[in-house]
Amino acid sequence: MYQKILITTDGSSVSQHTACAGVKFARQMGAEVLALFVAPEYQYPVYVEIVPPAYPSEEEYVQQMKRLGEEYMGSIMRAAEGCGLKHACMTAFSDAAALKIVDVAEQQHCDLIFMGSHGRSGWGQLLLGSVTNKVLSHTTKPVLVHRLIREPGT
Description:
Blueprint: E1 4-9, H1 13-29, E2 32-39, H2 58-82, E3 87-93, H3 97-107, E4 112-117, H4 123-128, H5 131-138, E5 143-147
Parallel strand pairs: 1-2, 1-4, 2-3, 4-5
Helix pairs in contact: 1-2, 3-5
InterPro entries: Rossmann-like_a/b/a_fold, Universal_stress_UspA, UspA
Family: Belongs to the universal stress protein A family.
Protein name: Universal stress protein
């Protein structure tokens, strides 16, 4: 049914549990896995003339975020490899994570977006906003939302 599934992660324990569920789902479908971490865009210092000595350059920031993304997606890659699934990972940069997820799903020809929800409802969902809700409202692709009933470790 699904050939290529995009699994998103932000590195949190909730998204790591969701990613594991995504790999299990991909195994059931016999689908390829594409793991995605969306890092924020590089932010230049407010006063460009006076750059603090500890402030990373844009190149350093990009390399650091790519390393972080590989770390976050490592468990997804190991799980997919253990299941014998074709897999790849990608770090993308955007301050609008939801739109980048939708864009990557289109560009990489994914059949399904698999992502998590923290399970917030009511005011919490309204006030905090949700990448998942934004993805749902901006894509025409199917989105499977994996909802954790309670935080991992509780």
